[in-house]
Amino acid sequence: xxxxxxxxxxxxxxxxxxxxxxxxxxxxxxxxxxxxxxxxxxxxxxxxxxxxxxxxxxxxxxxxxxxxxxxxxxxxxxxxxxxxxxxxxxxxxxxxxxxxxxxxxxxxxxxxxxxxxxxxxxxxxxxxxxxxxxxxxxxxxxxxxxxxxxxxxxxxxxxxxxxxxxxxxxxxxxxxxxxxxxxxxxxxxxxxxxxxxxxxxxxxxxxxxxxxxxxxxxxxxxxxxxxxxxxxxxxxxxxxxxxxxxxxxxxxxxxxxxxxxxxxxxxxxxxxxxxxxxxxxxxxxxxxxxxxxxxxxxxxxxxxxxxxxxxxxxxxxxxxxxxxxxxxxxxxxxxxxxxxxxxxxxxxxxxxxxxxxxxxxxxxxxx
Length: 367
What we know:
The protein is built from eleven helices and 15 strands. By secondary structure, it is an alpha/beta fold. The relative contact order is 0.16.
């Protein structure tokens, strides 16, 4: 079988942390090119990743026949032009979240990929956590009863120095909302279906007007705390909260993540730093740890060994496995650009709600 030949556009930490290891694990995939705006980083990654072809020109990489697929892991404001270029050249494409700076940009990316007939995927990593996969199974099979409440917390203890491009609206779109909470919007939609209405709030507490070395920089203009109240089409309610300023929530660098469904029969909790177990409890019981069954520790066929490596890291490698599988099997990938677009519709509504001081009705999702 001819391998799926992948070019990585954006050679920073995210690519090195989970995209490249995921590609290396899959015998059906081959890393053939690296692209980044930083020429020195391109040369460094060529050596580290053992890749012959490197460039600072994403258009040249998208046009090059050596690559049949691209993974975009660049700053948010570059996602749309690179994805449109990839689709124009018939390349399958995975893109980091958020897809764009707005839902309109995400819709344009989705429509371009659909028109080009290429596989498209949004890198919503946490859908692949074993505990989240098992939680989804419990809900979909009715083990929790009728869903009543969804609850999400994402607390990080990050330094209050500059985030670089991530702290400016013109390049990032938003802060915690687009960087972290949008993941939780996505898996809430995946678990419980469309969100019908919501209200939200944003805040910025850290000015981030200093670089890590102490030198001054322009003050941040994006949120470092976000919250949402929502109502799903199924009738369940949702509560989300995210912050990067939760002191003491370091947890080996992974931070605190808690996602919960309270159903009419039972409650179940996913925790990212303990991804191979869930908390489960019924009336009269306390929530208690329950191991994730073996069949949910990884997608069927994944070459990853669930017993190898840090559980809170290695599930991320299944992103690449799903992307390659969709290409090889000639089917849509999950989650797709459609999912990225719909999550961004909700995230944009949070901003609109905060600015207008009212609840926002979300449009019906297009099937």
